[in-house]
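Q: Hi! First time asking for a complex rather than a single chain. Here are the components, and I think there are two in total. Is that enough to go on?
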Amino acid sequence: GQQVMQIPQYQHVQEGEDFTTYCNSSTTLSNIQWYKQRPGGHPVFLIQLVKSGEVKKQKRLTFQFGEAKKNSSLHITATQTTDVGTYFCAGTGGSARQLTFGSGTQLTVLP
Amino acid sequence: DGGITQSPKYLFRKEGQNVTLSCEQNLNHDAMYWYRQDPGQGLRLIYYSQIVNDFQKGDIAEGYSVSREKKESFPLTVTSAQKNPTAFYLCATLDPGFGTYEQYFGPGTRLTVT
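A: Yes, that's all I need. Here is the structure of the assembled complex.
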C-alpha cells in the first residue's frame, strides 16, 4: 500500500533559525496536505497542494510539491516559539477522501 | 458552537474489557474517520465512513468495530481482541467543499488499558 515517509523525526532550533521538514511518498500522489499538531492537541489543517511543482506561502511558511508529485516540503523562516508542534504531511492516492499520514516532524524552538 | 466532540478526554479500562469511544459532529459532513496515534508516530486509519449505514476498514481495523446509524455520530468500539489498545484516538470529518479535502479533527480521547 501507499507509504509516506517524513524526515527528520525531531528538530530542535534556536528561535530565529529556519526549519524544514521533508515528505516522500512511495507512489505518485493526487495531492498532499500539511497539518500542525500542538503539544497535547489535535491536528489542524494548514494547506493542500495539488499541482506538480506547486509552491504556496503562508506568511513565514513555504510549502512545495515536487515535480513528480511524490515529495513535498515545508519550510519555516525565522522560527518563533509559537511554531512549536508536530508537522505532518498527508497524501492522497486514488481517493481524495482517504489520507496516508507521514510520521511527523516534532519541532522544538528554543528561546 | 460547531465542531467535533469526543468524550471522554481520558479513559481508563482493564484489559479484557470492550470500550466505546464517542464521536459527535454538527458540521453536517458526510465522511467521518477514526485514527489511532501512538507516541512519535503518525496517524493510522482504523475505519472510515462515507455515508450513513456504510463504513470501510482502514489500515489497522483488527480489534476495532464501528457503526454509523446517524450522520452526526460515529462511535468506535475497542474490543478485547485489540492487542495494544493504549493510544490516542482521533475522530475526524471531511469537508470536500471547493476541492480542498480538508479533514477536521476532534480533540481526541486518550485510552489507557492496564
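A: Chain A has a mean pLDDT of 94. Let me know if you'd like any chain examined more closely.
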